[in-house]
Design goal:
364 residues; alpha/beta; DNA polymerase, domain 1; ten-stranded mixed β-sheet; two-stranded antiparallel ribbon; 12 helices; 12 strands; binds iron/sulfur cluster
Length: 364
């Protein structure tokens, strides 16, 4: 039921002979009160509640495990109705609380530095499952916390599940839904160029593009979608995006020791993105068991950053948050006793940093 738009719910309400304004009442309970049952919706007529209960489900996700990091970051394991598991991450900072959301069970993009990639794609999440993460995560917030920012950087490639992503964004940003400012939402992509344009034409959200390499040869290896949308194509698509005058793209760049972190890489990166309204987010790699890469040491990342800054680019280094609970994912899964094929990997899409409103720490 949480995937319905207001107009869809108004149609349903009318069809059962109730006044259309009842749909707004139901939406109010679903999103403002985050009701967990139809019985809670006191002013909604019993006949309508009964009809909805017989024909729709509220779409709750269960939080089956929570891993706490010393810095306040919490990794949540959500269990879906079919038994599959996905992860979300709550990241509190001094002025906001960010939720990292998954968009798929597994992922088909096969990025070489990503544990989730090893699962392959199990299935797309439904819009109700995307939104259900927000409701379920809210129950894990302390009294002083309130989710303020949302990043689609959990498991999966959001733009590969566009219809469900779009429906979820509609509900998130609608005044009858969660009423979240689009500027507090960031969608991260490995570079599905044609869908990026559609996303920004339909939703004025922030966009983060995972670059990670400065040559097609290396990017083909690290981010295989590059074979379909090579760097020149991707960057030209970025140049043509309808960003508006205030927004800029964030390019994510995970620092892999001896792979993409040389001064020559920094110079090439600067040349590639210089024509674009953008910022660069340099990300610490958080190794996982079997990962074929090592993280670049901080001093080398700072040298890399200095080269970008010297070319008048905006480049930030994102601290890794909750690294110890990412490392403990195996334990989380073991406790959950889920079949391996139904578990998510770590959250590996890098974090956004486009605006002050959307600067969560790095999850990688
Ligand atoms: S980094 Fe993101 S897009 Fe790439 S495989 Fe992992 S989850 Fe998929």
């Amino acid at each position: 039921m949480r995937e319905l738009t207001l107009s869809e719910l108004e149609t349903i309400v009318s069809e059962v002979g109730e006044a259309r304004y009842r749909a707004r009442q139901v939406m109010h309970w679903l999103w403002r009160h985050q009701a967990s049952s139809l019985e809670e919706m006191r002013e909604v007529p019993a006949r309508l509640r009964q009809y909805l209960a017989q024909n729709y489900r509220l779409g709750h996700l269960t939080v089956s495990h929570v891993a706490h990091a010393a810095d306040g970051t919490r990794k949540l394991l959500f269990r879906l109705a079919d038994g599959a598991g996905i992860e979300g991450v709550i990241i509190p900072t001094h002025d906001r609380t960010t939720l990292c959301i998954s968009s798929q069970v597994g992922c088909a993009m096969a990025c070489e530095f990503c544990a989730t990639a090893r699962m392959g794609l199990v299935r797309n999440l439904k819009a109700s499952e995307i939104l259900g993460q927000i409701i379920a995560a809210s129950t894990q917030c302390t009294q002083a916390e309130r989710l303020t920012n949302y990043v689609f950087m959990g498991m999966g490639e959001p733009l590969a599940n566009y219809p469900n992503l779009a429906r979820a964004l509609t509900v998130m940003t609608a005044e009858w839904g969660l009423a979240v400012s689009p500027r507090r939402i960031t969608v991260s992509t490995v570079g599905l160029a044609p869908v990026m344009e559609r996303l920004l034409a339909e939703f004025p959200v922030n966009l983060a593009v995972s670059l990670h390499a400065t040559s097609d040869e290396l990017r083909n290896q690290l981010v295989p979608i590059n074979r379909r949308y090579p760097l020149a194509h991707l960057l030209e698509s970025c140049r043509q995006l309808p960003l508006g005058h205030r927004r800029r793209i964030t390019f994510e760049y995970v620092m892999l020791q001896g792979v993409n972190d040389s001064p020559a890489d920094a110079v090439r990166l600067a040349r590639l993105v210089a024509p674009l309204k953008c910022k660069i987010n340099l990300i610490f790699f958080n190794p996982f068991p079997g990962a074929p890469f090592q993280p670049t040491p901080r001093s080398r990342i700072e040298e890399f950053q200095a080269i970008l800054l010297s070319r008048n680019l905006t480049a930030t280094i994102r601290e890794s948050r909750g690294a110890e609970i990412a490392a403990a994912c195996g334990q989380l899964y073991a406790q959950a006793r889920m079949p391996r094929s139904r578990l998510t990997g770590l959250n590996h899409c890098p974090s956004p940093s486009d605006t002050r409103e959307t600067q969560p720490p790095t999850l990688l």
